[in-house]
Amino acid sequence: MLKPPDYASTPERIWHYAFIAICAVVFLFLIAPLIVIIPLSFNSLPYFTFTEEMLALEKGAFSMRWYEDFWGRDIWRQSIVNSLFIAVCATVLATALGTVAALGLSRPHMPFRAFIMGLLISPMIVPLVITAAGIFFFYARIGLTGTYLGIILAHTALGTPFVVITVTATLIGFDHSMTRAAAMCGADPARVFFKIVMPLILPGVIAGALFAFVTSFDEVVVVLFVASVEQQTIPRQMWAGIREEISPTILAVATLLIVFSVAVMTTIELLRRRSERLRGVTPA
Amino acid sequence: MTDAATTGAAAPADGPLTTADGRPLKSALARAERIRRVKAMLLVLPLLLFILITFLFPIALMLFRSVDNPIVADNMPRTIAALEAWDDRGELPDEAVFAALAADLAEARRNRTIGRLATRLNYETGGLRSTVTRTGRRAQRLKAPFKEALIGLDEDWANPETWAAIKRLGKRLTGVNYLAAVDRRYDVNDNVVPQPEVRRIYVGNFIQTLWMSVIVTIACLALGFPVAYLLSILPLRYSNVLMILVLLPFWTSLLVRTTSWIVLLQTEGIINDILVWSGIISEGGRIQLIFNAEGTVIAMTHILLPFMILPLYSVMKTIPPIYMRAAMSLGAGRHYAFWRVYAPNTLPGVGAGCLLVFILAIGYYITPALVGGQDGMMISNFIAYHMQRSLNWGLAAALGAILLFGVLILYWVYSKLVGLERLKLG
Questions:
Q1: pTM of the predicted protein model
Q2: Which residues of B touch A160 (CB under 8 A)?
Q3: Domains of chain B, with CATH numbers?
């Protein structure tokens, strides 16, 4: 595909290579900003640009000092713990609620499906500032501002649409005769669910859980509005870092987060392939 | 039921069909379906309740703040009651109103609510904050005639506009926040007039927000279309590799991507360095690429581009390549075949991608706040400003309501045009 067909005329050839060039530029636009961060995070000087020594690949120009700075500061370590704790709790809640709801939504007898689906997905669509403002007033009234529980509940609400969407997608084309067959063989509903349904929808559930996790892990607006200093999270700390004392420590954190997203992406991709294999769908 | 059983026994050929226990089949079916509906509903119920309580109810509560206006009515009950009779807006109200005001302000000061009262009045008419607090301090010692005494304290009490503002804000439900959100206000006779030139911010910013979102959407479409097309025609083993380049930014933290654009675009940043090094611009002529509207648009385009490419790709993947070949074998040129046969088939993907990007762009907060500077602000930034800094929550709620209304219309269009079931991720 990268070579034009032999019968192509000269303008067609030119257009073909121009097209490839355009695509290459767009790919560069997509990926370059992420790649550039990585070497800069090893800068031994507090600059956000490549020094001449770095370009000459001198050994002294690179260092781990920003990673050490990151690891050495209590506030960053605390924010990692907080982020993980909040994200894990929110993910567990969102996955449980979302999976059960998706099972209900996928049943052929579900009434008002489109309307309810619209409500359940709305946390993904409503601008975050509006969500955060609403939650702030609500929490102020019931005393949940500045608590872990408050942030976990808010992040759960933000994460559920992803679980609902991914699990509903795996349930499309789900063969209901399998659950009926299991029931006829004497399995009670709980057994049917864990032995038949769960293994089949598991890829969708895990994908949804990962989305929910990343949503919570990356969320900053709600945290800015309702959290106290105690619930400092990584994104909030980065936000503060970018606004106030911008140091290359941010770049070190960013590099670690990029590595993290590579891991998430790989997991999702493996799950997708497994799901397609399980459902007998050949990759399109 | 007995009726059905007897007729069933008497005339089995044309009586209603029954189940084994003698129920008419129709009602038995209806019952079975009802049970299934209830079961399906029960599965959805926990999440539905959760979203209603922790998400939709708080938003409704917040939106109510845009019309809710208790402060003045609660703190100036006597003044509001006395102002009932005041009709001639050319004249000042009579002595009774001034006396009521002195009493109200003295009490508000004792209750320590005068600060909130002063702030609320100040949103409406600039300068009233100091007038109210100063008057409140002395209100206790004022003696009749109150009219002269109060006007002697502060000239604002001799201005009918002050009284018109108090009377207007005395109502518990108010539209002033919405008027303020569209740069309008009431004049002394309660007519709606435009704000003075210097205070007109929001209409301009709504337009700027829409305009920036449109540009981001168009940029995403222009950049995303060729890439999605390339991905859809390449053999799977190549396209899977290239897909990583789309998915990696998609999965990477928003703050990381915003940070990297700051690093790239700042005046001492890499883009400017490259331009200087290659001699395109001089050392002194470094370009301001960030902390303005352009920088915001660039960063937002990068962040939202995967949301355009993914739906486009999934639609393009389903268009059989044979259509193009058929059109060309019928004599269409390459471009004619592309625009008349291929492009119309991609429209569902174009619609889905554009709507999604536009919906996400219009409510953006983080990126404009970090790289927007002064002229790259979007409406979300004003909402956050009034929430956290100026504490004018009524106005924040009104701006939020307008933004939410726009987003919900687009969401509705999306669900009709694309269908929520087709909302795919990754």
A1: 0.88
A2: 47, 50-51
A3: 2-8+18-58 (no CATH), 71-171 (no CATH), 202-422 (1.10.3720.10)
